Sequence to fold (595 residues):
Amino acid sequence: MENVINRHRTVTILVMVLFAQVIGLAVQVRRPVEGEPVRLIRVWATTAISPIEKGVIGLGNSLHRVWSGYVDLRGARRENEGLRQQIEQLQLQQLRQREDAAQARRLQALLGFKEQFISQTLPAQVIGTSGSEQSRLLYLDRGASDGVKPDMPVVSPDGLVGKVARADRGNCTVLLINDQLSGVGAMMEKSRLQGIVSGAANGTLILQYIMSDEKVEPGDMVVASGGDRVFPKGMPIGRVKSVSRGASVFYSIELQPAAELSRLEEVLIITKLEQRAPEAITAGSARAADILANRLPTVPPPAPTDENGNPLPPSRSNPPIKPNASNGNKPPAAGGTTRPATSAGGNPATAGTATPTPKPKKSPAATAASGEQDLSGPTGAAEKPPETPLDPKDAKTKKDTSDKQEKKEVPPKPDGPQGAR
Amino acid sequence: MRAVMAQSLRTDVSVNRFHPAALVGVPLLALFLQAFVPLKLHFVSRFDLPLLATIFFAVSRRNQVQGLMTGAAIGLLQDSLTGLPIGLYGLSKTVVGYVASSLSVKIDSENPGSRFLITFGFFMLHQLVYFTVARGMVRLDLQWQWQHELLGAVLNALVAVPIFMMLDRLKQRA
Fold:
């Protein structure tokens, strides 16, 4: 026996080394145990490589800062002007969206919903990858010493990136959402259909478990559903790239990731997610339409006149009308909100990108009937919102009252923008 | 091609030695570049620099035990950087290290043509072992795509020729 081993020494060693690795693989492949310690070799390898990666990244960043901050300033003035214009457009857009968000919060408060809020994030630099086509990992320069823990979500400004798989002392490992071991609770933004997003072996992002009798179109946005209790609800995952019917009852849906997963340089680790009931913003909050109306040029309202057409002097019982005050012609909508002013039938989100121009004034009835809300004058768009009805009975009473008023003064139009809302 | 093969097949072979720093430093550098460069140049993930280091040391040292041990060490370190079970690259590179050092006794590994062919063949062997273990033992959902693998083998073989020429400077004749 000893002779045989000596004669085939190299083969014996080969078999022993292979056997040891196969046993090691078999131990790892068994069902993972919660809280299992990290393999020491992983810690060693990461500890050996990450300081060099940090150093190289730091040096590169320093050189880039010197170049971009002192040398390469050509076109900065033009870029600055462009950015200023962009900021103005975004501010207008933000005003309109703030109104929608406030309405959503009021409704959620009424229904007792609890939301997840991202309350604390930690910026991190990407310092390395797994270097393998079969495993999609990123290494970040933040670790357990910075408060990073496993399962913390990692995002970029464009969308979801992944979650922390392991946190060492000075760095952490992120499992990308397109890795085949990853899984994210997801839903279609429009249709609210729920499924699971995971990665394929070749790195494509796949949305699974959407029934093939549902309507899914390329370009549809897919967001995190929050059902996995890891990723914050509503965070963009990607857009539908292609849809095909497989042999099973489910679609095979390929997604284009919202974040550029192969070109990430900086990411945000969400270190704290709070779950709380949303607070309804009512008293003291300025409405988007009011602020917009204040900014835009207005035509002063005609002074009150007597029966003969002579102007009346201002008095307590007949105060001068402020340009943006409510004229009382149009009652508020049932929910206590009025849709922000848009072009007729336009989308409030997109309307903000165009520069608003003053329009000729219409009578309030005509404005309401046409579905338009004049941004420039004292119309319904400038009305002060009523307080949020916290008591459902109170809300119902107010709704009835406002409905009656609307029936009296506004010709019925079932498909107007207010109704559509 | 035949001429290259004929020239490559010979029996009088020389054994090379390396400084211990080179034996440790080159694989670590290969691992570092493999993990770092794809951040800036994504296509670099198609290359397997640790595999090239394994092949180079195996065919240069012409010692089967050293070859398989070097392959196992490099492979296990590469595994530790991935999120997959440790041993997938380890097994593949152990086999490549052993076979490369066994073959190197019979072929000339100094010739650029033979180096291209060696790397091409060992890349395919490496992928074959990796896929077999990954699908058979770890149950990973991998798809074997001939076009993808052949292209990877050609790319790695092309890169191997200049890299091996650079690494030749580290050789110390035994």
User: Anything to note?
Assistant: Residues 29-173 of chain B form one domain. Chain B has a mean pLDDT of 87. Helices of chain B lie at 2-8, 20-36, 49-61, 64-81, 88-104, 112-136, 146-167.
